[in-house]
Amino acid sequence: MNCNHSNRSTFIALSCGIALGLAGISTAAPLITVPWNGHVGAVSFTFDDALETQVLNLKPLLDAMPDVHVTFFLTAFQDRLKDNAAGFAALANAGHEMGNHTISHWHLTDYTYAELNQDVVEFADTIEATMAKYGADVKVVSFATPFCENSDKVKSVIDKRHMINRDCTYDGARTFWDEEPEWMSLPAKIWSRSGATVSEMLNALDTAAYIGKFDNSIPLEHPITDGSWLIVLQHDVSERMIDNYAINPDDIKTLFERAVKNGLWVAPLGTVAAYQRAHFVLDKAIFNKIDNGYSVTWKLPHEHMPKSVPLRVKLDTTRVSSKTTIEQNGKTITPESDGSFIIEFMTKSLTMRNTGTISLPKPQQSIKAYTRFTIFDLHGKKLGITNSFAIPETYPKGVYIIRAEAKGLTPITRKISR
Ligand SMILES: [Zn+2]
């Protein structure tokens, strides 16, 4: 584990306070979700197009790296799912994720609803059935758009069957712990021989782990103030120099090794997404007094979540006794060595006992504590100031960034539409 929780805890508690402020109630449970499963940041390596080289050249590397788990986006294009099914089933059984990249690998934005339904919704079931035939119990929850072409219509169909969709971008877009991303359009950094050098990819992995000097980073969409979640898009894993999207096996191995060395959580897209989605839900979970304790309950954020979502939580000991125990399904959960508890988010409830009196969040943990709200455009250009997370009506319709600041508080940055 490479994570200092002390700063993080303050920040999370703060965001709990904000959630309460907005809801006008003060009953969110005294639990803090631990960012990125106890790591400083996360990286999800994704490999598209069901290519044979991913089985031949990548699988041996992955088999030798137990801390690295990745996502494969499968397609039936050119019979690739059928031809490589045994190899991908073996990868699934080794803990890697299988996601959906359509039957046709064609331009989804040109499709009718009926065509989308077949290519996006029904193919997810086909992947599961094919993997089952080869002995792998797979639940598809992640999608990736071919050519990263997306639209509101495409998103609405993806959302019917998947809890996350990956698009892409050529810049180093990344996701921060306390900022809910657009789940139907997560940005990924694309590897290509002409586009990204190995050293540029290594820098991106350092930035995700908050290693380096970022004092002068332009506030752009996100000032770099902490670790983050980086998503990387790869295709062929081979030495074929003729293929611009291929990466040499030695180079991908170098990237994996750096990610592990940096203490990043190297986990599949669906795993990290489910964990972060769970965080936003649990931070608002309500608790109720029951005999000899409190029950905490919540709802699932999407119908198509992974079968299991282990979520690492800590007690907010400013509000509850440090002797509090946590139970799920009648069993007491043994704390980890760092005092955190790994709960099963998919169980939708837990019981807290020996809590003492649960106190309310501190009043200063409120959005009202922020005194300065600065408006930026999406390129980081400062446009003006305002007095809350709202864009004044004098601004043209569009998407803006607001950064809230106050002495002694961690700045919060949010994307706001008007
Ligand atoms: Zn593709």
TrEMBL record:
<dbReference type="GO" id="GO:0016810">
    <property type="term" value="F:hydrolase activity, acting on carbon-nitrogen (but not peptide) bonds"/>
</dbReference>
<keyword id="KW-0732">Signal</keyword>
<protein>
    <submittedName>
        <fullName>Polysaccharide deacetylase</fullName>
    </submittedName>
</protein>
<keyword id="KW-0378">Hydrolase</keyword>
<dbReference type="GO" id="GO:0016020">
    <property type="term" value="C:membrane"/>
</dbReference>
<dbReference type="InterPro" id="IPR002509">
    <property type="entry name" value="NODB_dom"/>
</dbReference>
<feature type="domain" description="NodB homology">
    <location>
        <begin position="41"/>
        <end position="267"/>
    </location>
</feature>
<dbReference type="GO" id="GO:0005975">
    <property type="term" value="P:carbohydrate metabolic process"/>
</dbReference>
<feature type="signal peptide">
    <location>
        <begin position="1"/>
        <end position="28"/>
    </location>
</feature>
<dbReference type="Pfam" id="PF01522">
    <property type="entry name" value="Polysacc_deac_1"/>
</dbReference>
<keyword id="KW-0479">Metal-binding</keyword>
<dbReference type="InterPro" id="IPR011330">
    <property type="entry name" value="Glyco_hydro/deAcase_b/a-brl"/>
</dbReference>
<dbReference type="InterPro" id="IPR050248">
    <property type="entry name" value="Polysacc_deacetylase_ArnD"/>
</dbReference>
<dbReference type="GO" id="GO:0046872">
    <property type="term" value="F:metal ion binding"/>
</dbReference>
